[in-house]
Amino acid sequence: MDVTHHRRRPWRSSGGSLARPSDRIEALILAVLFAAGFAVVGIGIWAGHATADGLARHGPRVQAAEYAAQAVATGDARSFAGAGPNGVVPWSVPVAWSTPSGPASGSVLVDHAVAAGAPVPVVVDRAGRPRAAQPPRLSGAPVVVGVVTVLAGWLLLASLWLLTNSGMACLHAAGLDAEWERVEPMWSGRSE
Predict the structure, then answer these.
(1) What are the residue boundaries of the structural domains of the chain, listed by start?
(2) Each residue's pLDDT tens digit in the chain (192 positions)?
(3) Cβ-count burial of 41 within 10 angstroms (0-12 exposed, 13-18 middle, 19+ buried)?
(4) CB-based contact 165:173 (threshold 8 Å)
């Protein structure tokens, strides 16, 4: 006795009496939606990265009556003995920058060593005092955008599956009704 195990493929009929052509369509749609579910994860990752890039492009945080400037370190940075409030050792850097009224100079605290001649982004207040330009803080927004994108995509795919499933159920019910109309007279004994 030859027993061969054949894996059923969605596009091939199993040949059984219960196999319906719509089963293959339903299985194919399920496979496409499953692949789209994986693609949605990639789209969510891309959306998170795009959000992070958009937030990073806004430049330093500048408050009212301040402006951002590109300064140049005029000397090497000097380290302080103790760590700052965030655990980073601050470095004092002498800088010079251009203003509409002429060149200006000052000193800023940065969180890393800077060599003379290196660019140092600064924010200058109304009194002309510079401070190191802090890069924009990336909050949890990119992660939230990515997760919401993935969940929204999966919700859309789940609704498409439910819509497909209910449509196929209606087709199956209509097929069963038609079959019952054909068989019922013979079954009940009314056929002649």
Answers:
(1) 21-55+140-188, 59-132
(2) 555 555 555 555 555 544 667 777 888 888 999 999 999 999 999 998 888 887 776 656 666 667 777 888 888 878 766 555 555 667 788 889 888 788 888 888 887 788 888 888 888 887 777 877 766 555 788 889 999 999 999 999 999 999 988 988 888 888 888 888 888 888 877 765
(3) middle
(4) no
